[in-house]
Amino acid sequence: MRTITWDDERDCIVMIDQTKLPAEHTTYHAETVPELIESIEMLRIRGASGLGAAGAYGVALATRRNDADDFEAFVDAVATDAEAIATARPTAVNLSREVDSLRGVLRSCTSIPEARERTLAAAEELADVDVARNKRLGEHGAELLDDGDTVMTHCNAGALATVDWGTALGVVYSAQEAGKRVDVIANETRPLNQGSRITTVELQERGVETTLVPDNASGLCMQQGMVDAVIVGADRVVLDGGEEFGDQGVVFNKIGTYKHAVLADRHDVPFVVAAPHATVDTERSADEVEIEQRDGDELRKIYGTQNAPPETAVYNPAFDATPMELVDYLVTETGVYEPPLDRAAFEAEADRATP
Ligand code: MRU
């Protein structure tokens, strides 16, 4: 099934519950907006594109759970819910962007039944677009890979981080479809272990030979010549690096991505970022991007068992910033780009992307 979709019978959102993987393959029904927000915060649904779809379906859900006698009051109530959904996690631009796009649909409606019908139709369309553009992105990225290559990936930027197919792992699946054998080294991705809990599961389901490594082994793997390319996804790509990075763009992705870009540079391993234009934020600079800080207990405990004294101070950023100068290839649904990017030309490419 898709990572997230609409359950017509129960008239609510249904998603694969990624917090239960790999032990259980179960689904979770978000029947209310607070249940959706909790699901986003605790990473039942996650990954930039997955969050984008959650945002869109979330507005559709809000139109169903709000009732009001007059349309203006209804729009206000849905807008309040939409704002809470959009800000449930701050770093992936897709979440707030898709909520905003659905708000636009809402604004063009004139009655509650129309709003309910059209927001759900728009969310379904967006989910279909996500799958289609990931397939195109995958086909472009697959051209970078040769038969027999081994790709290292960090976190999970696969089908489970999107509606389906994935971005970084979509490149691997497209290479596989093109008849190339590509193996994957999956970094565990502490502290929430998306690499070991999620990436391994979906790669194995698709018959990709996968080796799990602790994050700390990735430098050694590159040193020993085990890696032909590092391919990661992105939560937000900005083209303006702001004060710290200047006119270089910056890729915000799972904590540890930057370290892998530096290691790849050191070992002459191509460092590839796979992300659709919907993840490119052309409006903000790197200075304006908030890196989500998560609860210290994600480090103080491991699966409920104490891993550090309860009072230990913790710094737990969920994402980091990789300057574009460390990115060899940026793969989108419109092609493969080699930084430094020609900003105007790259932005114009976004117009060729599926709306
Ligand atoms: O905290 P997560 O699991 O939502 O982080 C996910 C990532 O960092 C992915 O690499 C990114 O969202 C790209 S997935 C299309």
Automatic annotation (TrEMBL):
EC number annotated for this UniProt entry: 5.3.1.23
Swiss-Prot/TrEMBL GO biological process terms: L-methionine salvage from methylthioadenosine
Keyword Nuclease set for record: no
GO molecular function, one term: S-methyl-5-thioribose-1-phosphate isomerase activity
Short name of any one Pfam family annotated for the protein: IF-2B
InterPro entries in the record: IF-2B-related, IF-M1Pi, IF_2B-like_C, Initiation_fac_2B_a/b/d, M1Pi_N, NagB/RpiA_transferase-like
Top-level division of the source organism's lineage: Archaea
Keywords: Isomerase
Family, per entry: Belongs to the eIF-2B alpha/beta/delta subunits family.
Name of the protein in question: S-methyl-5-thioribose-1-phosphate isomerase
Protein source organism: Haloplanus rubicundus
